[in-house]
Amino acid sequence: MTMTVEKNLNTVREKIDNAARQWGRTGDDVQLIAVTKHKSDEDIQELLDVGHRLFGENRVQEAYEHWQARKDSGLYPDLQLHLIGPLQSNKVKDAVGLFDVIETVDREKLARKLSTVMQDAGIYLPYFIQVNTGEEEQKAGIAPRELSDFLGFCRNECVLNIVGLMCIPPVDDSHALHFALLHKLAKEHGLKQLSMGMSADYEKAIAHGATYVRIGSGLFGV
Ligand SMILES: *Cc1c(COP(=O)(O)O)cnc(C)c1O
To answer: pLDDT of the chain along its 222 residues, tens only?
Structure first.
């Protein structure tokens, strides 16, 4: 079990490198977020022990259980934790205290709350806006046509440091189309970071400019 996670990490890194080079980029342009939701403590520790430091969680409570003690221990000063799941307004305070990057800013109420909490706490994080590229009703994210206004709101009214965009394409659609759309939106708005691509499609996402890929099952199995 343990050996597998490290082996998978090396395999995924190699594939990231190859995909990046194929598109005239380098592996260093693409950061690997290890997604540790529903994962065991042993699995998480194994990645830390081989030096991996960039992780993603999609729920604040579970992230707290996985990471708070490890952060407090001071053993991993370069640990980077991304929130990649929906954030409820009543969890904002906890999230700002725990995460290093929040990728899922997607509505005015949340942006306002982040702004208040951030200024109270004196913690200034980088943020991504989640875009609902497939405009799916059940999915979080701002609609593509609303992005310009929302970005302006986040920057001007809320003083949030928005650095990039994030998306989760519809399951049944061509993911490449959604990656291309997110890339285009980021370019139009001068945003450098693109969080897109999961275990099944990260090489495609890299072809379309992903700077962060989010990998769970590809590292830990399903
Ligand atoms: C779980 C999750 C992932 C990882 O998915 P895998 O298919 O297991 O790689 C990536 N992004 C988000 C937002 C997730 O919730």
So the answer is: 456 899 999 999 999 999 999 999 998 999 999 999 999 999 999 999 999 999 999 999 999 999 999 999 999 999 999 999 999 999 999 999 999 999 999 999 999 999 999 999 999 999 999 999 999 999 999 999 999 999 999 999 999 999 999 999 999 999 999 999 999 999 999 999 999 999 999 999 999 999 999 999 999 987
pTM score, two decimals?
0.97
Q: Which domains does the chain have, with CATH numbers?
A: 30-192 (3.20.20.10)
* Rounded distance from Cα 11 to ligand 1 centre (Å): 18
Report how far ligand 1's centroid is from the alpha carbon of 60 (Å).
15
Q: How far is the CA of 59 from the centre of ligand 1 (A)?
A: 12
Ligand 1, pocket residues at CB < 6 Å: 35, 37, 58, 84-85, 168, 198-200, 214-218
Q: Could you give the CA distance from residue 176 to residue 202 in angstroms, rounded to a whole number? A: 10
94 Cα to the center of ligand 1, angstroms = 22
Distances (CA, A) of 127 to 151, 163, 204, 220: 11, 6, 24, 27
Nearest CA to ligand 1 atom 6: 216
For ligand 1, what atom is nearest to the CA of residue 220?
Answer: 8
Q: Which of 168, 165, 163, 162 is nearest to 202 (CA)?
A: 168
Distance, in Å, from the CA atom of 53 to the CA atom of 63, rounded to the nearest integer, reads 14
